Amino acid sequence: MKQITSVQNPFIKSLVLLQEKAKARKQTGTFLIEGLREISIAIKGGYEIETVLFLPELINENQIDQLVSSSVQLIEINKEVYQKLAYRDTTEGILAVAKTKSLKLSDLKLSENPLILVAEAPEKPGNIGALLRTADAANLDAVLIANPKSDLYNPNIVRSSVGCLFTNQIATGSTAEIIAFLQENKIDFYCATLQNSTSYHTQNFTTPTALVVGTEATGLTQEWRDAATQNIIIPMQGEIDSMNVSVAAAILIFEAKRQREFK
Question: What pTM does this model have?
């Protein structure tokens, strides 16, 4: 089995770039996954694992053999190399190099009566991770990111989604492309916004539906508000007029799930 014990090794340097640079992830079509649970979820979600690097003091080869196929390259590393690559404070001693997936709208496979979350230009990895966790909890058909500001394979997003990056169907596109996609597929879309809105709980989300949220700072663009089936609002009774985007999305999503009798 191959062993690497130097942080100056060219392969290790290339993996550091994968952690730090979206450009490197895009050029190679690969990214790093850290942690036994996350790697397991990625495999279940159909992600192809190319290489596994492990620290023998923390995880043994038998555990890895149960996780990945024999065609996956295994590399034993030492503590110094592991600490150079590991992104989390808590450690399990295992990392994997995986291939990214297509994020094209045309690759989505939707049910006959889909429920979709659309987020326009989310920037904070923590918010994106929380949106993906909520989408997984509700078993949504897809999460669409309009005008993405962050690379979805950013290690902060991988970490904050707790593996839910791998359990959701995800696609990206411009606002215009996603609006056209929803209209072509006869999916009504309800935009969470302060302007010209009606209370969210008065709407019918039992037919093909997309729930659209924007950033806390600027909200949704006019393009979404003009095209919406209906603009909706969560009634607020305190001093502020907005809440965290992932919290707002969860309220809307689970109202839709309630209307659908959690099916």
Answer: 0.95
